[in-house]
Amino acid sequence: MPRDTPYLQVADKLRARIRAGEWAVGDKLPSRARFAEEYGVGQSVAQRAMERLIIEGILEGRAGSGTYVRRARERRRMVRSRHREQRGKSPFASDMAELDHEADWECTSTARVP
After folding, report:
1. Terminus of the chain with fewer CB atoms < 10 Å: N or C?
2. What are the pLDDT digits (tens) for 18-45?
3. How far apart are CA 41 and CA 94, in angstroms?
4. Which residue ranges traverse the bilayer (predicted)?
């Protein structure tokens, strides 16, 4: 999507203002009507810009209360070791092969149903 799309331009400007510290974490943002007037766009454009920042995790909308600056999400990296995977085998099977074990997914149970 081109960056000249009005709502993306407004989102970029709001993001920059938040990063510059104009609003701190937990601060309530002005209304979308105010942003629409400030940026010379319609309220729907301002709303889409704010929704974009909500999706990105920068803002948080609270029903009946307004839009607030959100604490940065904690990023957790999911690591998957591709070098351990062998063609046609799962990571578990590859790990077991390294230990000279054969991977087996079958399970037997001695539980009895009364």
Report:
1. C
2. 999 999 999 999 999 999 999 999 999 9
3. 56
4. none
Domains of the chain: 6-69 (1.10.10.10)
Polymer length in residues for the chain: 114
Rounded to whole angstroms, how far apart are CA atoms 24 and 32? 18
CB neighbour list of residue 25: distance below 8 Å, 6 or more residues apart: 69, 70, 71, 72
pTM for the structure as a whole? 0.61
Q: Would you call 20 helix, strand, or coil by DSSP? A: coil
Give the three-state DSSP class for 62. strand
Whole-number Å distance between alpha carbons of 16 and 72: 15
| Cβ–Cβ < 8 Å for 103, 97 | yes
> How many CB atoms within 10 Å of residue 77?
4
In angstroms, rounded to a whole number, what is the distance separating the alpha carbons of residues 79 and 56? 22
Using left for φ > 0, alpha for ψ between -120 and 50, and beta otherwise, residue 64 falls in left
